[in-house]
Amino acid sequence: MLRLSKHFMENWRKRVGNDPTIGIVKMIIQDGIRVQEGRAFGIKKTLSYYWHPDLNIIISIDRFSNTAVSVLSKANMPVHGKKNNKSKKQVLQHEGYVAMTMHG
User: Fold this and answer.
1) 2 to 54, 66, 91: CA distances (angstroms)
2) What is the pTM of this model?
3) Is 10 left (phi over 0), alpha (psi -120 to 50) or beta?
4) Residues 44-103 pLDDT 10s
5) How many helices (H) and strands (E) does the chain have?
6) Which residues of 30-46 are buried (b: 16+ CB within 10 A; e: fewer)?
7) Distance CA 93, CA 99 (A)
């Protein structure tokens, strides 16, 4: 039985704009394009990702617990051509960061 995680439902409402249903998630899995298949590597597991081009969304499914985990939509895609206003120096400076330089 497929489950929808709390995180998935919150993200779906925020990014898609309505309430998610198990039926729509099953339809995305059935009709969508599997981008990545979940696999187990020792104790580590990966998620399965499905893209539905008509809906323009990607969902992630934990195939081991059969749970919809998250959704990506146009609402959270980066805008092409829009640059981050932070300089490289601002991005790299944080607590504990030590700048390394090479001297020749």
Assistant:
1) 22, 5, 40
2) 0.71
3) alpha
4) 889 999 999 999 999 999 999 999 999 998 877 766 666 555 555 554 555 555 555 555
5) 3, 7
6) eebeeeeeeeeeeeeee
7) 8
Give the separation between CA 87 and CA 85, rounded to whole angstroms: 6
> Residue 94, exposed/middle/buried by CB under 10 A (0-12, 13-18, 19+)?
exposed
Two tokens, residue 75:
């609402």
Helix, coil or strand: residue 69: strand
Cα gap 31→27, rounded to integer Å: 6
For residues 39 and 95, give the distance between their C-alpha atoms in angstroms, rounded to a whole number.
Answer: 36
Q: Can you tell me whether residue 59 is helix, strand or coil?
A: strand
Give the Cα separation of 3 and 67 in Å (integer).
Answer: 5
